[in-house]
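S2.1 Query sequence (glutamate synthase (ferredoxin))
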Amino acid sequence: DRLRPGRMLLVDLKEKCIVEDEQLKMQIAHSRNHKKLTINRIYLDQIRKDDVVVPFIKLNHGAVTNEYLIKRELKQLKLIGKRPGGDGKDHGRLRDIHLDSDRRLPLFSYTPDTFSLILVPMIIDKKEALGSMGNDAALACLSDYSPLLYSYFQQLFAQVTNPPIDPFREQIVMSLRCPVGPETNLLEPEFELESRILLDQPVLSLVDFQVLKRISFKGWRSYVINIVYPARHGQRGLVPALDRICSEACSAALDGYQILILSDRQVDKDYVPISALLALGAIHQCLIKQRLRMKVALIIESGEVKQVHDFCVLLGYGADAICPYMVYETCYRLRTMGLLDKNLTDDDVVQGYKAGIERGIYKVMAKMGISTLHSYKGAQIFEIVGLGREVVDKCFTNSVSRLGGANFETLAMEAIRRHRIA
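Output structure tokens follow.
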């Protein structure tokens, strides 16, 4: 019988024998008490059952849903409200507003094609939409349309004639399950590992994000870092803002917070969002230099994350989990307006989108022969085209950038341009 995916064969030259798959795995399994090593592992369901509270409502009662959280946010932004009837009285019905009324969409580079060609097909088919081979779009550094930072990154791949892993036929060896949070020294397995949260995949629903944001289970705490800066500071405000959030992250890590949340929710007419990727890269590298990175998990709450490449770049530069809130909120509005199948529930939308992103991440990892997300996270398997040395050194240390290009002022100018258009 040939060696199949997920199986091993050991040729022991010392004992002069061949150890087959089952025997080898049994030896490894009995080499130490693995149950004791993982006894402190935490699962998301355990946290849900804890007393995690969204104002006045407990999550473990099941009262809080993705729809509830979306409506609450859209009402605060006055994007949905009550529609009066013909008699002038409030009939309690949500009124439909054109998508353009949400000015965050152009701010985060959403276009009609984003929905018709990327998001809606992904939600319905639970996979990326098919497209032609190749990309004839202008390089991000040469574009006149102020593209998001993700466009400057090109995914590397194993340059062989056949893919190293078939992510679907060899699904048995692929996994997006990954522990997040403080790590201990794996080279000393006799000590009990610190408690870590085990996530089945890195794409968070709004409910799961709230669970982690308001965590108090077993002494865990989260800290929110707002990745925005005042628009009045102009192009020169970006670097001081990055320094501020890096200092904030280091202080939170030293204060014992296990989860750091990078959020651009506070964006409005007076505040410009810092790219989630830029903020993540700066914080990730700063924590590494201060020897604090293994003490915290980094979770992204961003409106600019929407497609598979965005998720992969964030994961590749250190993100542990990502909540793309703008996708959920806008798809809810599309559904209420009749532009998306009304038979789809909010849970269907979330699950379809998550399944599509997961499938896409599998394919990207397979191109490099990587089978687990744990190996892909923080690996920086990208080539940068069009970013200057100062940006790379501060936020994407050791990544390849042969051409140079945009500096912090250029990136700030593009962000401010999108902000003014919005």
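The CA atoms of residues 55 and 236 lie 38 Å apart. DSSP finds 15 helices and 17 strands in the chain.
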